[in-house]
Amino acid sequence: MAVNRDDLFQTIKFHQNSVVGVPGPFDCFLTLRGAKTLALRMREHERNARAVATFLAGRSDIEKLYYPGLPTHPGHDVAKRQMRGFGGMISFIPTGGAPRAKAIAKATKIFSLAESLGGVESLICHPVSMTHGAIPQDVREARGVHDALLRLSVGIEAEADIIADLELALKT
Question: Which end of the chain is more exposed for a tag (fewer CB within 10 A), N or C?
């Protein structure tokens, strides 16, 4: 027992049983080990995302770009006041609609086509055909999830490699 009050113990026990939120010893070890390098990984995650966002901002075949680290982002001033960095997540809408967005997502080599956030590896997601596919189109679009939207979780690979991969995929 981790507490000295039976009522608190019973509450914790109930939540552990119903939510199954109890990590095993190895999970705890991995969490502690990962925490030691978290700041370094986040710094690279953000640095690479800023470079990718700058690269995408300079392209004429990008209709919309969402990254709070860019001064052109509508929430930039709020993000600047509230955050020390702007993270590693970028969303964008390429010209050419959903067919081109899907082709871009499939053409990347460094970016894996997957649903996840903030890992060390770069990921690309087409939300309409992956994470948001079950949501009605009118609801998705009202929330900004359009058919051609792509979401990037920029990893910690070499910046030049990440940008080169996107540049080649955008030529599809």
Answer: N
In what order do the strands lie in the sheet containing 150-153? 62-66, 89-94, 150-153, 123-125, 112-113
Q: Which two tokens stand for residue 159?
A: 């910046």
Which amino acid appears at position 103 of this protein?
A
CATH superfamily of 38-170: Aspartate Aminotransferase, domain 1 (3.90.1150.10)
Confidence band for 23, pLDDT divided at 50, 70 and 90: confident
Domain boundaries, the chain: 1-36, 38-170
Instruction: Give phi and psi for 70, each to the nearest 5.
Output: -90, 135
pLDDT band at 119 (very low <50, low <70, confident <90, very high): confident
Query: Which range, 106-110, 130-134, 137-141, is most confident?
Result: 106-110
Burial 12-50 (b: 16+ CB within 10 A, else e): eeeeeeeeeeeeeeeeeeeeeeeeeeeeebbebbbebbb
Calpha distance 165→80 (Å, rounded) = 29
Hey, what are 20's tokens?
A: 């199954």
**Tokens 């052109």 label which residue?**
72
Whose structure tokens read 């990590």? 23
